[in-house]
Design brief:
CATH class of the largest domain: Alpha Beta
Largest sheet: 6 strands, parallel
Number of helices: 17
CATH topology of the largest domain: Rossmann fold
Distance between the termini: 85 Å
Order of helices and strands: EHHHHHEEEHEHEHEHEHEHHEHEHEHEHH
Helix content: 40-55%
Mean pLDDT: 95
Structural class: alpha/beta
Strand order of the largest sheet: 1-10-9-8-11-12
Radius of gyration: 26 Å
Shape: globular
Strand content: 15-25%
Length: 438
């Protein structure tokens, strides 16, 4: 029998609240010794170090020749993947591309701060990025699209992908199709700690990049933590998590269905149904066991673990209390099933993505709605955003002063430089005045 955690939030202890809000936070410090060992071997041995750990962790017969996906691998992938899946990849990619194209800013802008004083920004792409596309028990062509599309739209001149090998030492076929659909030709068949190290330092085959973007395992997270400062490691992304927020007008069948979406990702995922309406909560709980039984056994195990540990049903005192809980939790995915979702939207502050209404389940955004599904987890939605073109762009401030503008500004600058005791700053102004006759 499936055990589903039920918590009346107003009666829940502070310790239990803290446990739920922490999710399945894994202390990855225990992985640091292994991560440091692998990083050092890849840094000093290059391809040889990659091969050593690829054989140990992924593919026993892996060789350096397998490190980069060949044109023949892309051709074979198209033959191996069904036409229906290819069509779905192409349709999803088109929606994702259109959404991210709308995010692109003007390449340069200026404003006249006051007469003769011009200030603005120049927007340029990051010079090179490495996209980490995980594999795990399955394949994730959707992650390939979510990473490659904004990188391409942003105009990054050098985009490479790293993705773990199958036991046969190959890249996943559907992921190669997705890469090709997005215009990515440079795919390296390497995963885990060794992939992050290779991108950070470069090897004979894998190029060094300026930034790494993409979700991964706890081993990948440990590598990123250790390499922070050596390379930009991008958005923090851990186990999947979701909240289904509902009021008394929601359909319990849809609430129960959608609660399972993120719960099936893995044992450390979090999936919560939050409502103030007790009859709805009870109805959702009663529907879940039959729905869970319809899942394959291995996914069923994930769901039952999640709903009895890091997920389940939260009963609050009011819709306002439910919204307050959501804002405190700051979920990766938030689905809003209230009578007036756009009114509820105005009160929501912290979520990686917000999906409104009964026709917008999390599944649609994970694949083809157009929104980016690489989102902050673990409460980081309080300060981080989803992956977007901005992860692949940088801003340079640009300023210009005319003689008139400089004349108006120079006294203010010299005064503040004197106050902060920076004599060279002030001297650059006062001697310039002599040179320019101001």
């Amino acid at each position: 029998m499936t055990s589903i955690q039920f918590m009346r939030w107003s009666e829940t202890s502070a310790d239990e609240k803290a446990r739920l809000l922490r999710r399945a936070e894994t202390d990855i410090s225990g992985l640091f010794p292994l991560a440091q060992e692998v990083i050092e071997k890849v840094r000093t041995q290059g391809d040889k170090g990659i091969v050593r750990y690829a054989r140990k962790f992924d593919a026993p017969k892996f060789t350096a020749r397998m490190l980069r996906a060949k044109p023949s691998d892309f051709k074979a992938a198209r033959k191996a993947v069904s036409k229906d899946v290819i069509a779905a990849i192409e349709a999803a990619a088109a929606n994702i591309r259109k959404f991210h194209a709308e995010q692109m800013p003007e390449p340069m802008w200026f404003t006249e701060v006051s007469a003769g004083i011009m200030a603005g920004e120049k927007i340029t792409p990051v010079s090179s990025v490495g996209l980490y596309v995980p594999r795990g028990k399955g394949a994730f062509p959707s992650v390939m699209m979510m990473l490659a599309t904004p990188a391409r739209v942003a105009g990054v001149p050098h985009i490479v992908v790293v993705t773990p090998p199958t036991p046969e030492g190959k890249a996943d076929a559907a992921s190669l199709v997705a890469a090709e659909t997005c215009g990515i030709e440079e795919v390296y068949v390497v995963g885990g700690i060794q992939a992050i190290a290779a991108l950070a330092y470069g090897t004979e085959t894998v190029p060094k990049v300026a930034k790494i973007v993409g979700p991964g395992s706890s081993y990948v997270s440990a590598a990123k933590r250790l390499l922070y400062g050596t390379v930009d490691v991008g958005l923090p992304a851990g186990p999947s998590e979701a909240i289904i927020l509902a009021d008394e007008f929601a359909d319990p069948r849809l609430c129960a269905l959608d609660l399972l979406i993120e719960a099936e990702h893995g044992r450390e995922s979090a999936a919560l149904f939050v409502t103030h309406h007790k009859p709805l909560a009870r109805e959702v709980i009663s529907l879940l066991p039959d729905l869970i039984r319809e899942l394959p056994e291995w996914r069923r195990g994930f769901v039952t673990n999640v709903l009895s540990n890091y997920g389940g049903v939260i009963l609050t005192e009011s819709l306002a209390d439910s919204i307050s809980f959501v804002n405190e939790y700051a979920p990766e995915h938030l689905e809003v099933l209230t009578q007036e979702p756009f009114v509820t939207l105005q009160k929501l502050q912290n979520a990686g993505e917000i999906l409104l209404g009964h026709y917008t389940p999390i599944s649609t955004a994970n694949y083809a709605l157009g929104l980016n599904a690489i989102l902050p987890t673990g409460g980081f939605a309080r300060s981080f955003s989803s992956v977007s073109v901005w992860d692949f762009l940088k801003r340079s401030g640009v300023g210009y002063l005319s003689r008139e503008g400089y004349s108006a500004l120079q006294g203010t600058v010299a005064t503040l430089a004197d106050y902060e005791d920076f004599p060279a700053h002030a001297m650059a102004i006062r001697k310039r005045n002599e040179i320019l006759g101001i």
